[in-house]
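Problem 12. The chain below contains 293 residues. Write out its predicted structure in token notation.
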Amino acid sequence: MTSPDFTRNRENFCYRHPDRQSFVLCQRCTRTICADCQTQAPVGVICPECMKADRKAQTPAQRRAHRAWRSGVDSSKPIATYAIIGVTAVVGVLQLLLGPIIDRTLLFAAPYLFPDMFGGDFSFQPWRLLTTMLVHSGITHFLLNMLALWMIGRSLEPLLGRWRFVALYLIGGLGGSVAMAVFDPLAATVGASGGIFALMGALLVIGRHIGANIRGILVILAINLAIGFIQTLNIAWQAHIGGAAVGALVGLIFARTRRQSQRLVQILLLGVLTIALLAVAFLVTPVVLRNLF
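Solution.
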């Protein structure tokens, strides 16, 4: 099901397959192309027609280099999604084998950002803002998060492209950790929920931007946010809200800076957002901690 606005805007569909929606543009001609029409180039992806034109202008040496580049590359597959799941699964196996030592090494808690406020029991370890996404509180927690990542990533990664997808996931995870630091600075947290909710938030904004029917993802997002407030489940609702909000902002940046000429602006905006999140973590959290003490 799609809205009338989505159907009327043909720029939201692959120019070679009019029934397939996409959010990726050819880096040469800037036409919309679906996953099956994307050819990975040294920078971005290009459409079959532009690839054909490039090949005609190539020297024999360039053709050989192109074949070497293309070997083993299939841009239609959500490679980044599979890679994230794979790395997280490896850490999950280490959790089973080595026990709590992995949790203690990778989990996030605000005291690791401000060790001086806790009498030297902690050391400054800011990387935990992201490494917490690799550890989970149990097999069920891991399976549910990875299932959600797999289900959303298969659709969203081809829509955005690999590097945008990875940036969205990581910045969203950072947003979830920052929200935990601000709203519950004394709590320790684990899990990829910040990144997962960021994917849902971005999908909601991008879907709205291109005119798609977003009611389904809106309902799913609302239900999952509501579940986080059930006290008996011990879920970090702060990370969910933070991830979803940051994911929506990243989705808005992607939607507003879609064209190749806006690539630098897109990167700068993502950098500004990341710096703003870090500023919130390091400037607001100490104030909250002082009020608690």
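Discussion. The first strand starts at residue 39 and ends at 40. Students who got a different answer should revisit the alignment rule from Section 12.3.
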